[in-house]
Amino acid sequence: MTPWLASGSPLAALLSVAAVTVLLTAIVGIGVRRPGLGLIFFFFLFGFAWRLASVLYIDLCGPLFSDQLERDIGPGISALPIAISQGLVVGALLFSFRRQRVQQIFGVDEVALASRLPAGRFSLSALAFWMVAIFIAALWMDLLARGSIPLFAGIERFDYTRLHGGPLHRLLLNWGPMLAFQLGVFFAAPLLHGGPSDWRFGVLFGTLIPYLFLAGHRFSSLFIYASFFIIPIGAVMIGREAKSLPQGELISRKMLRWLQLGAVALLILATAAVFYSYIVVRGEGDVLFAKLSQRILVQQGEMWWMTYERVFLHGTWNGEFAAYKLFVDPFDPTRNSTMQFLMENGLPLDRAHDIISRGLAFAGGWPEVFFELDGPVGGFVLVALSAIVFSEFMFLMTRCIVQERFASCFFLTPILFTLSITIASGMVNSFVQVTFLVKLAIALVMYVLEDRWKSNLQLSCRSVLVEKQV
Fold first, then answer.
1. If pLDDT is split at 50, 70 and 90, which confidence band does 158 have?
2. Are 31 and 38 in contact (CB under 8 A)?
3. How confident is the model at residue 8 (pLDDT cuts 50, 70, 90)?
4. Quick count: other Cβ atoms within 10 Å of Cβ 133?
5. N or C, which end of the chain is more exposed by having fewer CB within 10 Å?
6. Are 25 and 45 in contact (CB under 8 A)?
């Protein structure tokens, strides 16, 4: 590799700045011109922007010291390949959600689900509300009954889960983002028909956030839950776009006010959680700003720098060994094997295993995993394939929401979470687990059954209309 690629030359800095500027402009453009798409992919686009800023900081300000890696990293043009990788994802989602295709989400004979169900006999939303309400009430009672509230006791969230958390708490940690997504589906579904959003589910979601705050969770958890909750709102906006309905009717002033209030409250909680964790729980108040600088500007990009150095600068990647550690012999097969592999490569082995054993992991994993598997050229091919699969699945999920295929949405949600974690943190070992294959098979069966049910209902509706006309 040419030596100037690892230097702080003006040309290298210019390439990094240009790559980041182009992609950030595209991300902002999506948010402004297609807000529905921006909400659906907010979790990923925000993460992309943050990582890009961190990688650019390393490129421009390096060499700088990484506390976690205990070594200097940067400078270089590591922003260029990661910007191209993220650009492939952005391009794939724009292609999957191109306006001509969005217009075809609703077929000519597509009829609202509410018009096909007998009135007064069954309310799916009422059943979902009471089931979730009972679960959340039991969750709160369990937290209060155990006496050890992490926020007040200064207990790290991982230690609380391991030492004090009950089965309901562990259930929430395993399925929480998926629960938030389902709450978002029921919250936004009435908007498809011009009705008000179902605020009962907004309230349920609102009760989860302070629970997570008291349980010691910080920005990442609050951000993930909120991001999954707003995905269905973005899907509804896409659905209204398909019907050529103005979005102004969807986002009323009252709803916009409440969403803004919720966003501000979430930001305050997340900020307070971060400061409390560093000052009270960890006792690092004297070096707070140095720690925050590392957390915000360095840690998001440091693992990518390590992969960039190995693969692009030195060409020392080993795809066969990477595949073995990812799929066959990870240190902890129940967790993300990608980050375990990257940490084992970037740290002394004993230290890496000690951190992993304590339930911790560094940030990153995607697109590092694909370049570790297939090198500087084949890595882009794997990134492109993953981008296509992900964007097409998100289009399928959006179509299920706007066509009110609630059973399909429910059983596709675990697949959504798995693919999301892959794009966010590079976790690929989920795809070789039997449980994932079972979930995928069940989701496919439910989609086919619901599709047949909808087809039969549409035929019935047509028959009724013909009889009335006669």
1. confident
2. yes
3. low
4. 15
5. C
6. no
Helix H or strand E encompassing 65:
strand 64-66
| C-alpha torsion angle, residues 230, 233, 234, 237 (rounded to 10) | -170
Inter-residue contact 138 to 204 (CB < 8 Å): no
> What counts of helices (H) and strands (E) characterise the chain?
20, 2
Rg (CA), the chain: 24
Using a CB cutoff of 8 Å and minimum separation of 24, what contacts does 64-69 make? 64/298, 66/294, 66/298, 66/299, 66/302, 67/291, 67/294, 67/298, 68/294, 68/299, 68/302, 68/362, 69/302, 69/306, 69/346, 69/347
What 3-state DSSP class applies to 111? coil
Residue 311 burial (CB < 10 Å; 0-12/13-18/19+)? buried
Q: Please tell me the predicted confidence (pLDDT) of residue 143.
A: 86
Report yes or no: 379 and 311 within 8 Å, Cβ to Cβ. yes
Q: Tell me: the pLDDT tens digits for 352-369?
A: 999 998 878 899 999 999
Q: Which two tokens stand for residue 437?
A: 């294959």
Longest CA–CA separation in the chain, Å: 82
What are the phi and psi torsion angles at 34 (to 5°)? -135, 75
Tally of CB atoms within 10 A around 140: 16
Give, in order, the Cα–Cα distances in Å from 72 to each of 60, 81, 158, 315.
13, 20, 29, 19
Distance of CA 250 to the CA centre of its chain: 24
> Token match 């270089």: residue?
76
pLDDT at 244: 60
Q: What percent of the chain has pLDDT over 70?
A: 82
Q: What are phi and psi of 66, to 5 degrees?
A: -100, 120
Predicted local distance difference test score (pLDDT) of residue 260: 65
**Per-residue pLDDT tens for 184-231?**
999 998 888 878 889 899 999 999 988 988 887 777 888 899 999 999
Cβ count near 363 (within 10 Å): 21
Q: How far is CA 444 from CA 61, 305, 392, 434, in A?
A: 49, 39, 15, 15
Query: Tokens 């009760």 label which residue?
Result: 207
Q: Shortest CA distance to 46 belongs to which of 19, 29, 28?
A: 28
pLDDT of residue 1: 47
Q: Which two tokens stand for residue 68?
A: 């976690």
Name the DSSP class of 326: I
